[in-house]
Amino acid sequence: MAIKKYCCEFIGTFVLTFMGCGSAVFLGAAMGGGHLAVALAFGLSIVAMAYVIGGVSGCHINPAVSFSMLLDKRMSVNDFAFYVVAQVLGAVVAAALLFAFVEGFGITDITGGLGTNGVANAGGISGAFVIEVVLTFIFVLTILGVTTNEKMAHVAGIVIGLTLAFVHIVGIPLTGTSVNPARSIGPAIFAGGAALSDVWVFILAPLFGAALAALVYRFLIRK
Q1: What are phi and psi of 86, to 5 degrees?
Q2: What is d(CA 159, CA 164) in angstroms, rounded to the nearest whole number?
Q3: Which residues, in sequence order, are CB contacts of 182 under 8 Å at separation 6+?
Q4: Euclidean distance between CA atoms 141 and 144, whole angstroms
Q5: Are 163 and 145 in contact (CB under 8 A)?
Q6: Cα–Cα dist 210/34, whole Å
Q7: What is the number of helices (H) and of strands (E) in the chain?
Q8: 3-class SS of residue 106
Q9: pLDDT in tens, the chain (223 residues)
Q10: How many other C-beta atoms can be found within 10 angstroms of the C-beta atom of residue 32?
């Protein structure tokens, strides 16, 4: 049933947002290798969910990934719409839980903003937009390539998770790394302020990067 796919996307995005943003909120740079720990938390979340829900929904857990699949004609407009709703809801619930830990239980938020994204360290809006387009392009192009190769099916989740980790290694010091509109929307709603006013960058840039990846894959790489 279609509802199973949407529920899986909700669960997967919840896990990605809670574990990824949660690692930033609770660990951040407070421990040695904090930057790498956050990157791995995002990547390992993808690996785990790929092997749990991948067979049901494809484990997009990212509107940008779903958008690339729509453009590549691997999903319908109807499925795309419901996937995005489920993904955003999953991220919002995850962010709400993180907010409850910080505000309700008095746990220190090292990021000061629930692991939200920002533009300041990337030289402003234009710099943040470009870096997010580039990082999303790399991430989504990898997904499009590995998921069409049957020989790679058994390791696809690992490849995708590692790719997400390495784009985070580059992006965390600059924007906090989004490459995923849902992951950005959830925490921004609760953090408010600049995170919420600038969240449009982290919605549009990943979608633009995903569209570019779909075009490059279709015309240059697809066999």
Answers
A1: -65, -40
A2: 9
A3: 13, 17, 61, 62, 63, 84, 87, 88, 90, 91
A4: 5
A5: no
A6: 28
A7: 9, 0
A8: coil
A9: 799 999 999 999 999 999 999 999 988 644 445 789 999 999 999 999 999 999 999 999 999 999 999 999 999 999 999 999 999 999 999 999 999 999 988 888 988 899 999 999 999 999 999 999 999 999 999 999 999 988 888 899 999 999 999 999 999 999 999 999 999 999 999 999 999 999 999 999 999 999 999 999 999 988 7
A10: 8
- Contact between 98 and 114 (Cβ < 8 Å): yes
Structure tokens at 185: 């929307």
Asked whether 170 and 35 are in contact (CB, 8 A), the reply is no
- What is the residue-wise DSSP string for 132-192? HHHHHHHHHHHHHHHTT-GGGGGGHHHHHHHHHHHHHHHHTTTT---S-HHHHHHHHHHH-
Are the C-beta atoms of 77 and 97 separated by less than 8 Å?
no
Residue carrying structure tokens 């409850």: 100
C-alpha dist (Å) from residue 49 to 18, 210, 220: 13, 21, 30
Integer CA distances (angstroms), 97 to 2, 18, 19, 80, 219, in order: 27, 8, 11, 26, 42
DSSP state, 72?
T
Give the HSE-up count for residue 210: Cα atoms under 13 Å, Cβ half-sphere: 23
| Residue corresponding to tokens 């699949």 | 69
Question: Token pair 């904090």 is at which residue?
Answer: 34
